[in-house]
Amino acid sequence: MSVFERLSPYQPTALAVLRVITALLFVEHGTQKLFGFPPAPFTITTLFFVAGAIELVGGVLILFGLFTRPIAFLLSGEMAIAYFMVHMQIDFFPANNQGDGAVLFCFIFLFLVFAGPGDWALDNRQRR
Length: 128
Hints:
- With 128 residues, the protein is mostly helical.
- The protein has one domain.
- 77% of the residues lie in helices and 0% in strands.
- It contains seven helices and no strands.
- The chain has helices spanning 3-7, 11-35, 46-64, 68-90, 94-97, 100-115, 122-127.
- α2 (11-35) packs antiparallel against α3 and α3 runs antiparallel to α4 (68-90).
- The radius of gyration is 16 Å and the shape is globular.
- It starts with a helix and ends with a helix.
Protein backbone atom coordinates (compact mmCIF):
# COMPACT_ATOMS: atom_id res chain seq x y z
CA MET A 1 0.00 0.00 0.00
CA SER A 2 1.44 3.41 -1.00
CA VAL A 3 1.78 6.39 1.31
CA PHE A 4 -1.01 8.17 -0.56
CA GLU A 5 -3.36 5.21 -0.21
CA ARG A 6 -2.70 5.26 3.55
CA LEU A 7 -3.62 8.95 3.66
CA SER A 8 -6.96 8.49 1.86
CA PRO A 9 -8.97 7.67 5.01
CA TYR A 10 -7.98 11.08 6.41
CA GLN A 11 -9.37 13.02 3.43
CA PRO A 12 -12.65 14.07 5.16
CA THR A 13 -10.70 15.32 8.19
CA ALA A 14 -8.20 17.22 6.03
CA LEU A 15 -11.11 18.79 4.15
CA ALA A 16 -12.64 19.86 7.46
CA VAL A 17 -9.35 21.45 8.57
CA LEU A 18 -9.18 23.36 5.27
CA ARG A 19 -12.80 24.51 5.74
CA VAL A 20 -12.29 25.64 9.35
CA ILE A 21 -9.01 27.50 8.77
CA THR A 22 -10.39 29.19 5.65
CA ALA A 23 -13.52 30.23 7.56
CA LEU A 24 -11.50 31.68 10.45
CA LEU A 25 -9.38 33.75 8.07
CA PHE A 26 -12.50 34.87 6.21
CA VAL A 27 -14.31 35.91 9.41
CA GLU A 28 -11.30 38.12 10.20
CA HIS A 29 -11.92 40.05 6.97
CA GLY A 30 -15.56 40.50 7.96
CA THR A 31 -14.76 41.77 11.45
CA GLN A 32 -12.19 44.14 9.98
CA LYS A 33 -14.80 45.73 7.74
CA LEU A 34 -17.62 45.76 10.30
CA PHE A 35 -15.86 46.44 13.60
CA GLY A 36 -12.44 47.78 12.62
CA PHE A 37 -10.71 44.78 14.17
CA PRO A 38 -8.01 44.17 13.25
CA PRO A 39 -7.54 47.84 12.34
CA ALA A 40 -8.18 48.41 8.63
CA PRO A 41 -5.78 50.44 6.48
CA PHE A 42 -8.70 51.60 4.31
CA THR A 43 -11.86 53.67 4.58
CA ILE A 44 -15.05 51.69 5.12
CA THR A 45 -17.71 52.42 2.51
CA THR A 46 -21.25 51.10 2.22
CA LEU A 47 -20.09 48.44 -0.23
CA PHE A 48 -17.34 47.34 2.17
CA PHE A 49 -19.90 47.20 5.00
CA VAL A 50 -22.15 44.89 2.93
CA ALA A 51 -19.12 42.75 2.00
CA GLY A 52 -18.14 42.61 5.68
CA ALA A 53 -21.59 41.38 6.68
CA ILE A 54 -21.49 38.67 4.00
CA GLU A 55 -17.98 37.67 5.08
CA LEU A 56 -18.81 37.52 8.78
CA VAL A 57 -22.09 35.61 8.48
CA GLY A 58 -20.89 33.40 5.62
CA GLY A 59 -17.59 32.71 7.37
CA VAL A 60 -19.35 31.61 10.56
CA LEU A 61 -21.69 29.32 8.61
CA ILE A 62 -18.72 27.78 6.77
CA LEU A 63 -16.86 27.45 10.09
CA PHE A 64 -19.67 25.35 11.53
CA GLY A 65 -20.27 23.54 8.25
CA LEU A 66 -23.87 24.72 7.99
CA PHE A 67 -25.31 25.12 4.47
CA THR A 68 -21.71 24.71 3.29
CA ARG A 69 -22.31 24.23 -0.42
CA PRO A 70 -24.73 27.11 -1.11
CA ILE A 71 -22.85 29.50 1.20
CA ALA A 72 -19.51 28.53 -0.35
CA PHE A 73 -21.02 29.25 -3.78
CA LEU A 74 -22.14 32.71 -2.61
CA LEU A 75 -18.75 33.47 -1.02
CA SER A 76 -16.86 32.29 -4.09
CA GLY A 77 -18.88 34.73 -6.16
CA GLU A 78 -18.30 37.52 -3.67
CA MET A 79 -14.55 36.99 -3.89
CA ALA A 80 -14.63 36.96 -7.70
CA ILE A 81 -16.54 40.24 -7.66
CA ALA A 82 -14.14 41.70 -5.09
CA TYR A 83 -11.17 40.75 -7.24
CA PHE A 84 -12.55 42.32 -10.40
CA MET A 85 -14.06 45.41 -8.74
CA VAL A 86 -11.19 46.26 -6.39
CA HIS A 87 -7.95 44.42 -7.04
CA MET A 88 -8.02 44.23 -10.85
CA GLN A 89 -8.42 48.02 -10.98
CA ILE A 90 -4.97 48.37 -9.41
CA ASP A 91 -3.07 45.94 -11.65
CA PHE A 92 -3.72 42.77 -13.64
CA PHE A 93 -1.42 40.53 -11.60
CA PRO A 94 -2.52 39.33 -8.12
CA ALA A 95 1.04 39.64 -6.80
CA ASN A 96 0.96 43.34 -7.67
CA ASN A 97 -2.64 44.18 -6.71
CA GLN A 98 -2.81 42.35 -3.35
CA GLY A 99 -5.55 40.13 -4.74
CA ASP A 100 -3.89 36.82 -3.89
CA GLY A 101 -6.22 36.29 -0.94
CA ALA A 102 -9.35 37.03 -2.95
CA VAL A 103 -8.30 34.56 -5.65
CA LEU A 104 -7.46 31.83 -3.12
CA PHE A 105 -10.69 32.36 -1.16
CA CYS A 106 -12.66 32.26 -4.43
CA PHE A 107 -11.23 28.91 -5.47
CA ILE A 108 -11.23 27.31 -2.01
CA PHE A 109 -14.91 28.18 -1.66
CA LEU A 110 -15.58 26.89 -5.17
CA PHE A 111 -13.82 23.65 -4.19
CA LEU A 112 -16.08 23.37 -1.11
CA VAL A 113 -19.14 23.68 -3.37
CA PHE A 114 -18.09 20.44 -5.08
CA ALA A 115 -16.32 18.64 -2.21
CA GLY A 116 -18.76 19.40 0.61
CA PRO A 117 -17.84 20.24 4.20
CA GLY A 118 -15.81 17.18 5.27
CA ASP A 119 -15.89 16.04 8.89
CA TRP A 120 -17.07 18.08 11.89
CA ALA A 121 -19.88 19.82 10.01
CA LEU A 122 -23.45 20.50 11.05
CA ASP A 123 -24.43 19.63 7.47
CA ASN A 124 -23.52 16.02 8.32
CA ARG A 125 -26.04 15.97 11.17
CA GLN A 126 -28.83 17.22 8.90
CA ARG A 127 -28.32 14.30 6.53
CA ARG A 128 -29.07 11.75 9.26
